Amino acid sequence: MPPVVGQPAWDVALLYPLQGGWSEEEYLSIALTRNRLIEYTNGCVEVLPMPTVAHQLIVRFLLDALRAFVEPNLGVVLFAPLPVWTVTAKYREPDLIFHFTESHTRRAKQYYEGADLVMEVVSDDPAGRQRDYETKRRDYAEAGIPEYWIVDPQQHRIAVLTLDGGRYVEHAYAHGGTAESRLLNGFSVDVDAVFAAGRR
C-alpha cells in the first residue's frame, strides 16, 4: 500500500525491535545518536515528551547554581539527553547529573553508570509525575544514587531525597524555603527563585 500524505510513517517502526525485545546495545545506538529523551527498562524503550520552555528555564537555573558550586574542583554537572545506567537493563535520562571528580574520571563509556546526585524537574502530565515520584525514585535508590532532587513546578515544591539504608528519606521545601543538599555541604537554592526562573 502506498504512503498516505499526512499519516505517520508507521512502517518505520518495523525497522526496530518490538517492545520487550530491545537489547541494551540497540537502545544505546539510538539514545546516543538521537537528540531525544529515550529511556530503557527491561527490553522496552520509552520516548519522553520534549520539555517546555518553563521546564528548561528551571533546569538552566539549577544547572547554573550547581555548576557555580561544584566546578571546577568538586566535580562535573551534565544534563539530558544523556543515558545513565541505573540497574541491570535500566537506563534513565535525569534532567541534571552530578558526579564527584573521582566518579567522573572513572567512567569508561559514552554514558554514566550511576551518579552521585540527580535532579528531575517534574513534567505537567500524570505519566511524568508518576515516573519522577515513583518509578525513578525506586530506580535511583536501587542504583545507590546518594541524593535525588524532585523539583515540582505544579506544587511549587522541592523534595531532596537522601539515601539511607537503601531507601530514600525525603526532606521537603516549599514557598519561602531554601532547599539544601545533604551530599554537598553548603549547596542550597531558594525555592521561590527556582520557580520564578520558569516564569521568565
Structure description:
This protein has 2 domains: 10-46, no CATH class; 51-197, tt1808, chain A (Alpha-Beta Complex). It is 28% helix and 28% strand. It has 200 residues and is of the alpha+beta class. A hairpin with a 2-residue loop joins strand 10 (157-164) and strand 11 (167-173). The chain is built from 5 helices and 13 strands. It starts with 23 loop residues before the first helix and ends with a helix. It has helices at 24-31, 53-70, 101-105, 126-142, 191-197; strands spanning 38-41, 44-47, 75-79, 84-85, 90-92, 96-100, 112-113, 117-121, 147-152, 157-164, 167-173, 178-180, 188-190. The strands form 3 sheets. A 6-stranded mixed beta sheet has the order 3-6-8-9-10-11, with helices on both faces. Helix 2 (53-70) packs across helix 5.
